[in-house]
Amino acid sequence: xxxxxxxxxxxxxxxxxxxxxxxxxxxxxxxxxxxxxxxxxxxxxxxxxxxxxxxxxxxxxxxxxxxxxxxxxxxxxxxxxxxxxxxxxxxxxxxxxxxxxxxxxxxxxxxxxxxxxxxxxxxxxxxxxxxxxxxxxxxxxxxxxxxxxxxxxxxxxxxxxxxxxxxxxxxxxxxxxxxxxxxxxxxxxxxxxxxxxxxxxxxxxxxxxxxxxxxxxxxxxxxxxxxxxxxxxxxxxxxxxxxxxxxxxxxxxxxxxxxxxxxxxxxxxxxxxxxxxxxxxxxxxxxxxxxxxxxxxxxxxxxxxxxx
Length: 308
Ligand code: DGY
Prior knowledge:
Elements: E1 3-6, H1 14-19, E2 23-26, H2 35-42, E3 47-50, H3 58-62, E4 69-72, H4 82-88, E5 91-93, H5 100-116, H6 118-127, E6 147-151, H7 156-167, E7 171-175, H8 181-187, E8 190-193, H9 207-212, E9 217-221, H10 230-239, E10 242-247, E11 267-269, H11 278-297
Parallel strand pairs: 1-2, 1-3, 3-4, 4-5, 6-7, 6-8, 8-9, 9-10, 10-11
Bound molecules: (2R)-2,3-dihydroxypropanoic acid (DGY).
């Protein structure tokens, strides 16, 4: 029997399955453990089930001499210092596939909300700014025939978004690492981000990229906040260069309520809920537990982090 540290209570019965075979210590808080608390939780553990809010770095690993497996409760793993885990030979697992549909659904919800100005229209109802049925007000972008550029569009979530957008009649362009990003941005009515956050993709949507986007176009981000230069995004929205932006992810998270970005017009920000369906979150827990059970048996994880 091994000791497994888990950094949050999870939905579903997966942790019961883990506890049937190992000693499981679950962080009891609703908020993430602070770094020192995380180190204390992990100090005696053989394995760790962690969240994207937990930073797994060389300092944590130094405080966890027995650690040999980490299961991230996410498909992204930019919270994990890849060089540090590789240097220790620690197995790292992620939760692909099971959150693809949930995240793609939310991407379309954001795309539609931004394209039709739903947050502003809903606010007008509540503030009394809704005066009458107005032929020239609340006009937005119709999806049929519009061009959608999916940055990182050849990954699982990008493909699932492409399938949904095609059903709305959009022309979909998937942009990979070797494609001309700027040219694609210049052609698109809507740009949606689906690439992992790496040193290569950090701030891939910077002031220049935003300036390249078509006047009146829309930006959607359900991937990672660090892909976007938020100062430049705010400026682009304030200038009216972009018609709208809809973000499920920000940098940092949570975004403080007084962050200047939130004063930008035509902006919708959600609290990173792309995978927040009952089914996706329970299946993520199942996969994270499958990864740990395999690693603790000495077998390869069924869903290892790519490249690790
Ligand atoms: C992930 O899995 O990386 C998501 O961002 C969490 O929903």
